[in-house]
Amino acid sequence: MSDRIKKAGRHVSQNEGLIFEQSALGKRGIEFPPLDVPAVDARAALGAAYAREGIERFPEVSEIEVIRHFTRLSTWNHAIDLGMYPLGSCTMKYNPRVNEFVSRLDGIATEHPYQPQELSQGCLKILKMLLDCLVEITGMDAGTLEPAAGAQGELTGLLLIRAYLEDTQGQPRKKVLIPDSAHGTNPASAVIAGYEVENVPSDERGQIDIASLKKIVNGNVAAMMVTNPSTLGVFEQNIATAAELLHAHGALLYMDGANMNALAGVARPGDFGVDVMHLNLHKTFSTPHGGGGPGAGPVMVKKILQPYLPIPVLTEKSGRLALENHRLKSIGRVRAFGGNFGVLVRALAYVLAYGPGIRQATEDAVLNANYIRNNLEDVYDLPYKSPSMHEVVFSDARQKKNGVNTTDIAKRLIDYGFHPYTTSFPLIVPGALMIEPTESESKQECDLFVGAMRAIAEEAATNPELVKTAPHSTRVSRLDEVSAARKPILRWRPCPSGPCLR
Ligand SMILES: *Cc1c(COP(=O)(O)O)cnc(C)c1O
């Protein structure tokens, strides 16, 4: 077991009860002084339905007990601040603290979206600068910062394609083509946008099969959605050819740019035929994510799609910025206000801090993934041999022979002090181990990870039971994940025989 875990064990009780179990009658966090003003009858003032005497079974604990309890709990979860978080596809990288600081500055965090535009010029300037930077990084012509997530960006992009086709060709067409190496949100977004999805197979190198594409592209196809680099961590070498083919049939090319971590500063989608794409600012451009926090999925477009962008549109006239709502061809609003402003501020701070150096971040992300690939290739099966970009996808084919699967290996990784990689995705790799170290990790940390993965491969061969029953270092081990998702117990109730969860 790693030293990291042993060290943590000294300070952290893994047998902490619920806060309800620490409750004792009459304990208080703070005491108020006696009232020196006339008391107000809350029932009379608010109505009986809104005024309550107390909260039934609310825990009674002191301030320090609350603080210690939640601080200890916070250390049970793995976090990027504790160690490597190689969750493939998610780009769980370190987010520089200075960007947090910038997003909380007075005049940024304290501004109100309903403030008059004359008093919001600074905030609008931040949006304008960020859009200009993203235009430069992607090689596109214009964009919107509104969508709050990658998936919402996908839907927005598809609605733009729909509006464009309706406007210029009189009908939106029927189908969206999606390679089998795409991210799972892509087909879902296409269906919500009213399209049928048709699958494009990958060839043995994990590339879009152009011969198959030629057979299925026709006047019914509105667009193809390509995740690039794909979920195999492979760059689509045929993307420009695919773009030409689509354009020749009056269809458009959508690129899922959530993996821009592998391209920023090196290649620009606008230069290889992409018509519309989204970015995940909360992956590539510095916002902590993974806990369901706010995100931003800006959509960048070529000129032909610009008239349809969501309102409000940011405009500039003789140095004054404004948000304009009058756009005849716009698809309308996709989100309240201008998007998740704090996330946009962090992204701009990140881009400006790097400048052209963003290329180095990209190269380091690719280098780290390939370093891990090279050091694990002899013990884990590598189903696709194309060069890896920012992530590498192995399979559990070798360990399967001893009854050990990708989930077992991932669970065992927890005992070594690492967050698991992404399991069982992409779907075209049975038993996938999808590993994305990101550019944040040093060679030393990558070596620790490689060491852990090699040790687990050894265990899988010599002591498979140890891996199949992992994790062994956590308060609880394997949970009934289906019941936890389908029949969650979210409220504590005392049992007759003593406190318990029921
Ligand atoms: C994360 C991700 C998405 C979805 O982004 P959300 O912000 O989670 O909606 C889409 N495509 C790819 C390739 C991703 O990695």
Short summary of the structure?
The chain has 502 residues and is of the alpha/beta class. The protein is built from 17 helices and 14 strands. It has 3 domains: 3-74, no CATH class; 98-355, Type I PLP-dependent aspartate aminotransferase-like (Major domain) (Aspartate Aminotransferase, domain 2); 357-484, Aspartate Aminotransferase, domain 1 (Alpha-Beta Complex).
Report on this model:
With 502 residues, this protein is α/β, with parallel strands linked by helices. It contains 17 helices and 14 strands. Strands 1-7-6-5-4-2-3 form a seven-stranded mixed sheet, sandwiched between helices. Strands 10-12-11 form a three-stranded antiparallel sheet, with helices on one face. Strands 8-9 form a two-stranded antiparallel ribbon. It folds into three domains: 3-74, no CATH class; 98-355, Type I PLP-dependent aspartate aminotransferase-like (Major domain) (Aspartate Aminotransferase, domain 2); 357-484, Aspartate Aminotransferase, domain 1, CATH 3.90.1150. It is globular and about 80 Å long. Helix 9 (239-248) links the parallel strand 4 and strand 5 (252-257). Helix 4 (97-103) packs across helix 11 (341-354), helix 6 crosses helix 7 and helix 12 runs parallel beside helix 15 (443-462). The chain binds pyridoxal-5'-phosphate. Residues 89, 149-151, 183, 185, 227, 256, 258-259, 280, 295, 297 line the site of pyridoxal-5'-phosphate (PLP).
